[in-house]
Amino acid sequence: MSQTVHLSEARAERRRTARQDSRFLRAFAVFAEALLTGVWIALASLPLLTFPAAFAAGASHLRRVLGHEVATRREFLADLRSAARRGWLVGAAGWAALWLLWADLTVVRAGLPGGAFAGTVGVLAFLGVCVAGLRAAASWRPGASWRVLLRAAARRTVADPAGSLLLICGLAVVPVSAWFATPLAAPALGVVTAAALAVERRHRTG
């Protein structure tokens, strides 16, 4: 009787260990897929205006992976083409915001009255624009309107400061990774994409 109990406990322990190993392997596989997705996003962003579309396609790809759907390079490229139809305008707006930030910081460096305040406002506004853009891209679906997505994302950026701060910290990982080794910036983009998906899911379920 005692031997039977011990055998049952041993089998139960093996099943628990197998489940834990399986969860670890799935989590590691998703992490590896996120890093690969970051490389895809970086390559798709080389035209400079396509970063929002590339980020949206990357988020869509990871969403498929998490949903155990077919998620290959073919689906990524199809999403990229779809998102880029209007997404390039979002990319152009992002570059315009970056130019405005540069002009604002130029005023700060010139030492003009009120320059420090203007610089602080400019940096905060630029970060807000970046977060709203990431949230919109993470929520993108084929056929969705970028204007509608950005409007809703701007509201979420203000209404969910914790999530917005998390995304800002995630963005900081990219230049830090590039500082250590430039090629690391590409897979870091995948981590930011996964973070954006997590923030959006948290906001919906919270």
What does this 3D model show about the protein?
The chain is mainly alpha-helical and 206 residues long. It contains seven helices and no strands. Helix 2 packs across helix 7 and helix 3 runs antiparallel to helix 4. It is globular and about 60 Å long. The model has no long low-confidence stretch (mean pLDDT 87).
Helix content: over 70%
**Percent of residues in beta strands?**
under 5%
Distance between the termini: 50 Å
Please outline the major beta sheet: none
Give the SSE string: HHHHHHH
Strand tally is 0
Per the principal axes of the C-alpha atoms, what is the gross shape? globular
| Average residue pLDDT | 87
Low-confidence stretches: none
Discrete helix count: 7
Provide the gyration radius in Å. 21 Å
Query: Helix/strand/pairing class, anyone?
Result: mainly alpha
In short:
The protein is mainly alpha-helical and 206 residues long.
Overview features:
206 residues; mainly alpha; 85% helix; 0% strand; globular
Helices and strands in order:
Blueprint: H1 2-44, H2 51-66, H3 73-109, H4 115-139, H5 146-159, H6 161-180, H7 185-205
Helix pairs in contact: 1-2, 1-7, 2-3, 2-4, 2-7, 3-4, 4-5, 4-7, 6-7
